[in-house]
Amino acid sequence: MTTALDTRRPGQTAEVPPPPASRRPRILQYNFLGGLTGWIWLVVVLVPIYWIVITSFKLQADYYATNPLVPSSPTLENYRFVLENHFVRYFFNSVIVTLGAVVPAIVVSFMAAYAIVRGSAGSRFLRSVNAIFLMGLAIPLQAVIIPVYLIIIKLQMYDTLGAIILPSIAFAIPLSVLVLSNFVRDIPKELFESMRMDGATEWGTLWRLALPLTRPALVTVTIYQGLQIWNGFLLPLILTQSPEQRTLPLALSAFQGQYNINIPAVLASVVLTTLPILTLYVIGRRQLLSGLTAGFGK
Amino acid sequence: MKRRNFLSLSAGAAAATGLAACGSSGPADTSKDSAGGDAASYWFLSGPPGEPIRQGAVDRFNKANAANQIKVTTFQNDTYKDKLKTALGAGQAPSMIWGWGGGGLKSYVDAGQVDDLTAWFGQNAAVKDRLFKSSFGPATIDGKIYAMPCETVQPIIMLYNKEAFEKAGVQNPPQSWAELMSLVPKFNEKGIAPFSLAGQSRWTNMMWLEFLFDRIGGPEVFNAAYAGQKDAWSNPAAIDGLTKIQELINAKGFVKGFSSVTADSNADQALLYRGKAAMMLHGSWSYGIIKADGGNFIKDGKLGFFNFPAVDGGKGDPTNTVGNAGQYLSIYSKASEHQKETAKKFFASLLDDTEQQGWIESGGVPIIQGSNSKLAASPDKDFLNAIYDIASKAGNFAQSWDQALSPTAAEALLDNISKLFQLQISPKQFADNMNQVIGK
Amino acid sequence: MTIAPPVVRTAPPAASRGARSVSVSWMAWPALFAFTVFGIVPLFGVLVLSFSSWNGLSPNIPFTGLDSWRSVLNDPDLPHALWVTFLIMALSWLAQTPISILLGVFIASHQRYRNWLAVLYFVPLLLSQAAIAITYKALLDPNFGLGAGLGWGFLQQDWLGESKLAVGVVIFVVSWQWIPFHSLIYQGGIRQIPASMYEAAEIDGAGRVRKFFSITLPQLKYTIITSSTLMVVGSLTFFDLIYVLTAGGPGDATRALAVDMYQRGFKANLMGPASVIAVILVLVGLGLALLLRRLGGRDAAESQLEGA
C-alpha cells in the first residue's frame, strides 16, 4: 500500500485550500517511514474499534459463545436498552457540563496566562500566582475529593450540574495556564510595543493581538480539557446523586450489574457517546486544523 | 493529640483563605434537599439481579407507610463503595447504609457512624428469630448487633461441568483434596482446564485459601488472625494450605493465563459453561449468571455442584462453609430521629413473601428460617435446596476474609494473595507479610 | 503550534513597567479565584490531613504529627510506586513521541485519504478511560479475547498476570488513546514550518533524513515541549485507566502513585498516608513542570519583559 505514496507527483495534493506557505514542504512527500507508521497505526486503532462496534450488536448471551472478531446475529437490543435508560438526558448533561466548564476555564486561563507573561517581571503578585498554578499541575483529584465535596455542600450546590462545572474549571486552569503562557511568551515584544504605540489597552491587546497569535495553543488546550471533562467520572459520581444530574461516564456504570458487566450494552453506549463528537469533529476538522496552524503568516 | 471535626477543619481552611463568607449555611442534609420532608435515604446497588427486588420492597413500604417515606438512590458496586466512603467522611451518609458487614461495618462502628441495634432486636424478637442465626455473625461487633441482616445467603461452592467430566472419564466430583489433585492431569490430558479462576480479581483466589485453611485446621486458623493473635498466619495449618495452593498452581490446576481472567466480565463463568474448564469455586450467585448467559447449560442439566472437599487428615469439619451469610443494613448515627424510626419500620418489613419470592426467582436463598418450603416450586429447586442445606447445616459459616478483616488488612491480604498465586512469594513470605498487618 | 519568532528579541525601552503590571494583574484574578476555592483550599486540607491518622470515616480527626509522613517515607512501597510512576511516564513518553511525530508528518500532508485516516486516528481519544479499559480487558482475555479470536497463540499471553507484560499493556493502552491527540498537535506544528527552509536545504543537497533532523525536529522544539508537558504531567494523574485495567496489579507491578494513594485512602482507610502521597504527587508535578521549562530554555519566572 505504501508504494502508492511514493509514486505521487508533487502538486497532486492541493485539494485543500493551501495554507499560508504556498508550497508544501518537501519533507511531507515520499515519506516512506511516515506512511508505514500511518498504515500500521490505522490497524492498531481499528481493531479495538471494530471489536467495540460488532460486539455492541451482540446479545449478552452470545458474547462468550461467538468468536470475538466475527459479527453474529446482529441485534439492536443493546441500543434500545441504552436509549431507554435516559441516554439522551445523560448526553445533554455531559454537553452542558463540558461546555459550561471548558469555555470559562479557557477564557480565565488565557487571561491569567497573558497577565503572567506581560506582568510578572514587575509584579511579585503575578509571580506567586504563576507558582500557585504550577503547584496545581498534579493535584490528584481522588485526594482532594472530600474537601471539594464539603465545599460544594457549603455552597449548596450539591447534586446540581454546577457542582461538576466549578471544580472542573478549577482543575483545568493550571495546565491551561502553563501551556498558554508558553505561547503568549513567544509573541515578539515588538508587536506588543506597536500595539501600545497605537494606544491599545492591555485588554484590547489581549483580544486583538494575543488571541489570534495563540490560536493553535487555545485549540489544543480546549480539546484536551474538553475531553478530560467529557470523560470525567469522579466529580459527577461524588458531587451529584439524582439520576437527573448524571453524566455519560456515570451512565456507563449503569450497565454494570451487581456481579457483572453487560459488556455489549456498555459498548453500545460507548458507540452512542462517541458518534456525535466524531460527527462534530468531521465537520469541524478544517476549522480545527486551521486553528492549529494559525499564528504568524510566514 | 488534638482532635478536630473535619467539617470545622475544612471551614477553617476556607476561612484562612478568606472564603468562608461565600454562602455557607451549615451542612445540608442531602436527603432533605431532594425528597422534601424528612424521608429516610437508602442507597443500594444497581443492576440485576438485586435492584428490582430492593426497589420493590421500598415501593411496597412507601405505599403502606404514608408518614415514613424512603428515598432510594442506586449505584454500581464499585462506585457505591467510593461514594459511600466519601459521604461518611464528609458526614453526609444516607440514613440506611447497605453493606457486607464484618470488617467494613466494624470500621463504621469504631468511627461512631452507625447505631447499636441490640436493644431494638431485643424488643423485636420476632424480627430476629425468623432469620438464619449465622446471618448475625457479620452484623455483630464485640457482642453488639449493628446491622439488620437482609436479602440472601451466598455460600461459596464448587460448580462443575458434567459434560467435561464425562469427556475426561471422571465419574464423581472429588471427595478429598488428594482426589482433586489426581483429577488435574486427567482433565489437562483432554485439553480441559481443571479449574476456572478469575485470578485478576484477587478475591476469587482468596476463596481457595479460605476453604483450605478451614479444611486443614478448622475455623480457628483464620479466627486467630482475625482476633489479632501474634504470628497467626504462620500456623502450620496455614502454611500447609498456602503450600497446597501453590502445588495446585504448579500442577497446572488453573486455566492457563488465569491471572488475566476477570470476574466482573464473567469470563471465569464462561470458561465453565463453555466447557473449557471442568470446575470452578465461586459464590452461589454464579448460578444466576450462568442461567442468564449460559444458554441451555443449566436447562440441559450440565451444571453440577458440591461443597469444597475435605483435606485428608485435616481438622476442619467438611460441612463448614464460607461466603456471605447475608447482606446488611445499618442506621446512620447522624440521621434524624424520624429517619431512624422509618428505617426500623422498614427493617421489620423486609423479606416479606413477595421479596422472598423475588430472591428465589433470581437464584438466591433468602436468609429466612424455613424459606426452603418456598423453594420446591422453583425450577431451580435442586440448586436452591443445596444452598439452603449448605447454609443451614454448616458447622461453621465463615465470612469472606476480605470482608471480615479491617479494610487496611484486607487490602494487604489481597495484595499478597495475588503475589502468592503468581508464585512471586513463598508460603512463608506470605505469612511473614500478613503477620505484619495483624491487628491493623 | 510552533511559533518561531522571526524577530530577534531586543531589550524594549524600560517604560512604565510598574504601571503595566498593575494594569494586567486583574486579569489573573478570575483564574486565581476559581483555582483557590476548588484547588488550593482542598489542597491545604490534604496537607493538614497528612499530619493526621484519619481513617476517612470518623468525624474526629486524630492529629498525630509526622507519623503518617514517617510511615510512608519508611515504606518500601513508596520507592516502588515512584519507580512505577516514572517508568510509566518515561516509557509512555518514549512510545508516544516518535510515533506521534511520524504520524504528524504523515497526516500533515494535504491529501484527502490522509484526512480520513486522521479522522479514524482521532476515535480512541473520544472514548472514556473506563470504556477503553473494559475493551482492552476483554481483548486481552487469554480464552475469549483477540488471541483466541484470531487463533494466534502469541497473542494469548498472560497479559495482565505477568508484571512486565502488564506494564507494557498499560503503556500500550495509554499510547493508543493519546497518540492521536499528540499527532494532531505535531501536524499543526509541521504545517507551520516554512517551505522555504526545506527548499534552501535541498539546494544544499540535504537528503530527507537530514532535512528531518536538521529542520523538522528543531523547528518542532516548542511543539515537542508542549506535547511532552501534557504527556508527562498527564501521566502523573493517570488513574482510571490503570485502576480499571489492572487495579495496580499483578501484585504491585503497575501501582503508580495515584493508584497507591487511592488504594490507601479509599480501600484501606488510611487517609493520613494517602494525603502524604498526594502531597508528594503535587511536589513531583511541580518539579517536573519546572524541569520542562528549563529544558525549553525558559525559566519559570522569566517574562518577556525581563531585562527591561
Main sheet properties of chain C: none
What shape does the CA trace of chain C take?
A: globular
N-to-C SSE series of chain C?
HHEHHHHHHHHHHHH
CATH topology of the largest domain in chain C: MetI-like fold
CATH fold field value of the largest domain in chain B: D-Maltodextrin-Binding Protein, domain 2
Roughly how many Å apart are the termini of chain B? 20 Å
Instruction: Tell me which CATH architecture of the largest domain in chain C applies here.
Output: Orthogonal Bundle
Helix content of chain B: 40-55%
Structural class of chain C: mainly alpha
Q: Overall 3D geometry of chain B?
A: globular
Q: How many structural units, i.e. domains of chain B?
A: 2
CATH architecture of the largest domain in chain B: 3-Layer(aba) Sandwich
- Assign a percent range to the helix content of chain C: 55-70%
**CATH superfamily grouping of the largest domain in chain B:** Periplasmic binding protein-like II
User: What integer value in Å does the Rg of chain C equal?
Assistant: 24 Å
Number-wise, the strands of chain B total 15
Q: Largest sheet of chain B at a glance?
A: 7 strands, mixed
Number of separate helices of chain B:
20
Q: What is the highest CATH level, the class of the largest domain in chain B? A: Alpha Beta
